[in-house]
Structure formats: structure tokens, C-alpha cells
Design a protein that fits this description.
The protein is an alpha/beta fold. 40% of the residues lie in helices and 16% in strands. It is built from 14 helices and twelve strands. The strands form two sheets. A seven-stranded mixed β-sheet has the order 1-7-6-5-4-2-3, with helices on both faces. The structure holds pyridoxal-5'-phosphate (PLP).
Length: 347
């Protein structure tokens, strides 16, 4: 009934595995088959999301050109700019919603890196159009699919070359592991990613893969619950007097709403919202009783944090809070937010 946890680094010749760094283990394979199946491609599991991302950047020749989103995971922005400062490649940042600029990038760049919906502003990129444009060109098109999860979106089916998941987030789902996975749409790319893992030694842990497979068994239930609650909370936050602005693609007022409806099976369980200033944001986090004041998202427990408190995120509004909705009772979550925010909610 369960995937065996195989704590092995080496296997006797003659079977399907040999030395694990190159050939993997049955526990890693179980996670790769599972997520590969969900994303519709061939997967390689890594020690973290960033390890999977580095394996993709590792495919690039020296002097490559890279397009990354203006709103996106800070680790990718930092990796891209660090490599640029060392003379490895050159980077352009494009507005996530500027489809024409992305289409152009598929003609001029070696790597087009998309994140949709993006983190933390939940901007949806027009994956359909951009992937279709890239098909005629020699660029590697990658979508970080962590926020959407493979249940809400399958980038490979839209034409992406690689989809990335930080397994640490929704797939694991319990804040008890670090893991990442890259899913390729083609055999040669899959082999190249395996090689990158082998050479970097960015191998996943046996326990982490076991826990991720176990976590994934409830992914659909957790996501259904948390995104259902997120839709309710986003609507209620909109009419809270202390809330200046709410970013949630499920809201009709969100600029990406129409595209999100077309492209995603669900709007997800991450909501960003703005309060007056950094002090108000910090005091809201400090007053929480049920929601945890912590970073990350995609776990069973709800978390809230001020994004501009992070290095590299100073460009965001000082009062921007990111809420990751977990699977707790929706009424209790709203009560907690309402008591932590200043002022009295109107509903
Ligand atoms: C967390 C995250 C990553 C990095 O994953 P780690 O497992 O922390 O290395 C990459 N992309 C997105 C969108 C993330 O949220």
C-alpha cells in the first residue's frame, strides 16, 4: 500500500539501480513517477526547489540570454543576477503580463523563465500564447508551477519544455521537508537534468521523498479545502476597512482574473493584501492567534508574513502581507484575521 522508504546509496549490479547519485533509488523514483504523471512529463527529483532550478540554469551555455519575470520567486531573481554579475549570462526582467515582450523573448533568449501565477502578486502570464510562440524557436521555456500546483495547471501540455515544483510547498504540504522536482517534456532534456543532478550532487533525501509521496496523497483534498477558504477570505478582506488592496486571481477586480479563469483549474490558496504601512503589517502578524507568523506557502497550516521584510523584496509595498491559507476552519481563520487587523470589519 505504501512506497517503501529505501535508505540506500548503492545497489548490487544487475538490478534496476546502481550508485544512487547517478541512478536514483526506488523511493526517489516513486516521487518522480507520481509528479511526472501529474505534470505529464518525465521528472527528476532534487534536494530542493532551488536545486531543481539550478539544474535548469546549468543547461545554459556561457553568455546565454535569460528573461525572468519582474514579479517572481526571489531565489530565481537572485540566482539570475548573481550569475550575470559573474559574467555567465545576461538577464532581462519582463513584466509578467507583457505577453508581447515574452513572445519576443522566445526569439531572442536562450532561456525564458515564467512563473504563473507569480509570487507574491499573483499575476498570471499568458502561457498559452508564449508557449505557442516558443515552439518555433530554440529557446528553453520553463514555467515555475509551484504556486498553481500540477492540479491547477499543467505547463507541459501548454507547450513548456520544463515545469518546476518546489516540493517543499503544496506537494509535501506539511512543512516537514525540502524538495524540488523538474519535469521535462522530452527524453533528452530529462537525461540532461539527471546528469546535472548527478554532477552537482543535488540529490533528494530518501525520507523527504517518502514524506512527499505521502503528502501528495492528500494534495487534491488539501487544495480543494484551502482554495475554497481562500476565495472566501479574499472576498472578506476586500471589504475590510484596514485593507487597501487585495491580490487574488479569483477576484473579479484582479487584473489577471479573465486569464486565470481560462488557464487555471483553480485560483489557489495564496492571497496577498496591502495594509497601510509596514508597522500595521507587522502588528497584524504579531497579533495572530491561529495563523502562524511565518514564510512559505502550501502547507496545512495557514501562515502570514510581510513580504517587504525579506532581502530583495524592498520594491514591494511596505504594507504587503502574503497569506497562505491552510486547511483550518474557515470561520476561525477569518476571526483570527479580523481580530489581528486594526478596525472592525463590516461583515
Ligand atoms: C519556494 C519556492 C521555490 C524554491 O523552493 P525551495 O524548495 O525552497 O528551494 C521556487 N519557486 C517558488 C515559486 C517557490 O515558492
Amino acid at each position: 500500500m505504501n512506497t517503501p522508504l529505501v535508505p540506500a546509496s548503492n545497489f548490487v549490479f544487475g538490478g534496476s539501480h546502481a550508485y544512487a547519485r547517478g541512478g536514483g533509488t526506488p523511493t526517489w523514483s516513486a516521487l518522480e513517477h507520481l509528479v511526472g504523471g501529474l505534470e505529464g512529463g518525465q521528472a527528476v527529483a532534487f534536494s530542493s526547489g532551488m536545486a531543481a532550478i539550478c539544474a535548469v540554469f546549468d543547461q545554459l551555455p556561457v553568455g546565454a540570454t535569460i528573461a525572468i519575470p519582474r514579479d517572481g520567486y526571489q531565489g530565481v531573481t537572485s540566482l539570475a543576477h548573481t550569475g550575470q554579475s559573474r559574467g555567465r549570462w545576461s538577464v532581462t526582467e519582463l513584466a509578467n503580463e507583457d505577453t508581447a515582450a515574452w513572445v519576443k523573448a522566445t526569439r531572442t533568449c536562450n532561456l525564458v523563465w515564467l512563473e504563473s501565477p507569480s509570487n507574491p502578486l499573483l499575476v498570471v502570464a499568458d502561457l498559452h500564447t508564449i508557449c505557442a510562440a516558443s515552439r518555433n524557436h530554440d529557446c528553453l521555456l520553463v514555467v515555475d508551477n509551484t504556486l498553481a500546483t500540477p492540479l491547477n495547471q499543467q505547463p507541459l501540455a501548454l507547450g513548456a519544455d520544463i515545469s518546476i515544483q518546489s516540493v517543499t510547498k503544496f506537494i509535501g504540504g506539511h512543512s516537514d521537508l525540502l524538495g524540488g522536482i523538474a519535469i521535462a517534456n522530452d527524453h533528452a532534456l530529462h537525461q540532461n537534468l539527471l546528469k546535472a543532478r548527478e554532477l552537482a550532487g543535488a540529490t533528494p533525501g530518501a525520507l523527504e521523498c517518502y514524506l512527499a509521496v505521502r503528502g501528495a496523497r492528500t494534495l487534491a483534498l488539501r487544495l480543494e479545502r484551502s482554495q475554497g477558504t481562500a476565495a472566501q477570505l479574499a472576498a472578506r478582506l476586500t471589504s475590510h476597512p484596514a485593507v487597501v488592496r487585495v491580490y487574488y486571481p479569483g477576484l473579479r477586480a484582479h487584473p489577471s482574473h479573465a486569464l486565470a479563469r481560462e488557464q487555471l483549474a483553480g485560483f489557489g490558496s495564496v492571497i496577498s493584501f496591502e495594509v497601510a504601512d509596514a508597522d500595521t503589517a507587522d502588528s497584524t502578524c504579531e497579533k495572530l492567534a491561529l495563523i502562524r507568523h511565518a514564510t512559505s506557502f502550501g502547507a496545512v497550516e495557514s501562515t502570514l508574513e510581510r513580504r517587504s521584510a525579506h532581502a530583495g523584496q524592498e520594491h514591494l509595498a511596505p504594507g504587503l502581507l502574503r497569506l497562505s491559507v491552510g486547511i483550518e476552519d474557515p470561520r476561525e481563520l477569518w476571526q483570527d484575521l479580523a481580530q489581528a487587523l486594526p478596525g472592525t470589519p463590516t461583515q
